[in-house]
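thread: overnight batch results

M.L. [08:02]
morning all. the overnight job finished for the chain we discussed friday. pasting input first so we're all looking at the same thing
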Amino acid sequence: MRRQALSSLILLFFLTAAPALARHPDSEALTCADRSVSAKAVRTTQDVQAFVQCAREFLEEVGEDKAYDAFHNDTRWKSGPVYIFITELIPDGTQARSLVHAGRPERETTDPAMLGDRTDAFGTDIVAEGVRIIHANGGGFSYYGFENYETGLVSPKVSYILPVSWRGIPAMLGSGIYLRDLPGTCRSEEVNAMELEDNPSDERLREFVRCAAMELESNGYFATITLATDPRWKHGSIYLFGVDTYGSALFSGDPDSGQPGAGVSELNDMMDGPFGGRDVVSVGDAFGETLLYYTARNPASGEMQDKVTFVKRVVVFGLPVLIGAGYYSGYNPRPSPFPF
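M.L. [08:03]
and the structure it wrote out:
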C-alpha cells in the first residue's frame, strides 16, 4: 500500500508537470515526425537522444503491450548493444524495479534485487542518478560504467533518459551507447589495426585515429615510433602517419615511407599528387577532423586502390600536428557509372 501511494503521488507530479517537461528544449530538439530513427543507426549521443525521444512517442502511441513486444523483438528498437530500458522511478532507488530491459529480459522482475549491480566503478548509483536527473531537469544524459553485453566488458556508457508512465507506474525510459574512443575506453583489444583491417568502416577508422591521437598527445613525439611500428597500430594495409601543418611528414608506418620525417607526405598538395594541388593539410588544420578520399598504393597488395582516410588535428608540445590513417575500399581503375 505504501509503495502504491508513493507511486501515485509521483505519477500525479509528472502528469501535472507534463506541459513544462514538453517545453524543455531538449525534448523538442529531435522528433520522430521529421526523421527516421532506429537502433542500428545509433552512433552518437545525439542519435541516442533522438532514439529515446522516438521510443517515448512510440510508447504513447501504441501502449505498453505493443511497445513491450516491439522493444524486445523489433530491430528498430534493439540492435547489438543498443536497446531500450525502463526502470521504476521512485525516490528510494534501492527499491526500484526493472520494468523493461530489452538487453537482458531476465532482469525484469518484481524483485528490486534483480535489477543488477547499480553502483559502478565511479561510485555512481545508476538508478539514483537517473532519478536525480529526471527531478532536476526533466530528463537528460547519464554517464556511468555498465557491462557491454556484446563484449562482456564493463565500459563507460552514455545514456539518455526521459520520464514515462508504464502501466500507471512512474518510470524512466532510456537507452545508451558505448563509445570506444574516449580516454577511458581506448582498449587495445577493442581498437587496433587488425580489427580495422578485418572490419573496415568509417566508424572504426575514427575510433582508431582518435585513440592514436590521444597516445600522441599524452606521450609527445616519443610516441611516434610506437605509432609507426607497434602491431596495435600497424597491421597489413593499416598504418598511421603524421604531418605538420606545413605538410611535412613527421612519421609513418607505411613501409615505403622510409625513416620518420623523410619522404613525401601522404597529404602532399603537388599538382600530380592524389589531391591535384588541393591543400588538404590546411583543411584538416581548419576543421580539426576530416575524412579524405583518394587513390594510394596499398602496402599489403602493392596495388593502387581507393582509400578512405581520417585525419585529426592534435597539439604536441604546443605545435599542431595532423595524425591520420585509412582503409582501402577498392581497386582502380574500375567502371564508372558517370560519363566523365
